[in-house]
């Protein structure tokens, strides 16, 4: 099977896995495409993004639910139950960490360093990098949270610098970046003023 045929097969398998809602296998197929270290097409980028978004999204939702239950058990004074819930929460956090580190490695090793990347690709990848460091910052504590937040901030800044120079203000990736960057300011840095300013600037530039 030729190089091109193998790539097409993996893309097809990723689409098939998406239809079957088997997102772990969708991730595996798209990692093989990314490992070729070639510029991804718009379709391939979106498949990679959707695969990881679904894998991480389910666990982020689980983490929020379990964290809420843990707080309720603590507030009721149910120490034994709270301890069990905490153990479960830590298990989910370990899964989240593994997934985030996995896509961050793919981005750094296989995608971001490609000299042939278009500006659109670069912004997309740095935005993704910012997103997954942000997801780590959502649940990590102390130094781990600080490091994840710093890495997320830098990635969003890198994406924004390229975006402002190379992409039109109405480009969907540029707008999506501004939205996610503003979420980072609001949720991770607890800076609603900066979040609103960033989002409003992006909106005003686009109209």
Automatic annotation (TrEMBL):
Pfam families named among the record's database cross-references: 14-3-3
Keywords: Coiled coil
PROSITE patterns associated with the record: 1433_1
UniProt site (Interaction with phosphoserine on interacting protein): 60, 134
Classification via SMART domains: 14_3_3 (SM00101)
Coiled coil spans: 13-46
14-3-3 domain: residues covered: 7-207
InterPro entries per record: 14-3-3, 14-3-3_CS, 14-3-3_dom_sf, 14-3-3_domain
Gene3D superfamilies: 14-3-3 domain
PANTHER family the record matches: 14-3-3 PROTEIN
Family indicated by similarity: Belongs to the 14-3-3 family.
Protein name (record): 14-3-3 protein
Source organism per UniProt: Conidiobolus coronatus (strain ATCC 28846 / CBS 209.66 / NRRL 28638) (Delacroixia coronata)
């Amino acid at each position: 099977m030729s190089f091109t045929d193998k790539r097409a097969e993996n893309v097809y398998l990723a689409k098939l896995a998406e239809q079957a809602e088997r997102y772990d296998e969708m991730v595996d197929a798209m990692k093989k495409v990314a490992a070729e270290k070639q510029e991804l097409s718009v379709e391939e980028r979106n498949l990679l993004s959707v695969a990881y978004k679904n894998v991480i999204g389910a666990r982020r939702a689980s983490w929020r639910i379990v964290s809420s239950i843990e707080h309720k058990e603590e507030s009721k004074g149910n120490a034994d139950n709270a301890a069990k819930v905490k153990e479960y929460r830590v298990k989910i956090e370990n899964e989240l960490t593994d997934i985030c580190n996995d896509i961050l490695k793919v981005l750094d090793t296989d995608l971001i360093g490609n000299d042939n990347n278009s500006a659109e690709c670069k912004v997309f990848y740095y935005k993704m990098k910012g997103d997954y460091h942000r997801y780590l910052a959502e649940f990590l504590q102390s130094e781990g949270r600080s490091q994840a937040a710093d890495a997320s901030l830098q990635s969003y800044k890198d994406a924004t610098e390229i975006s402002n120079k190379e992409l039109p203000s109405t480009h969907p990736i540029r707008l999506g970046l501004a939205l996610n960057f503003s979420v980072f300011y609001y949720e991770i840095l607890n800076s609603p003023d900066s979040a609103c300013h960033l989002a409003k600037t992006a909106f005003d530039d686009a109209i």
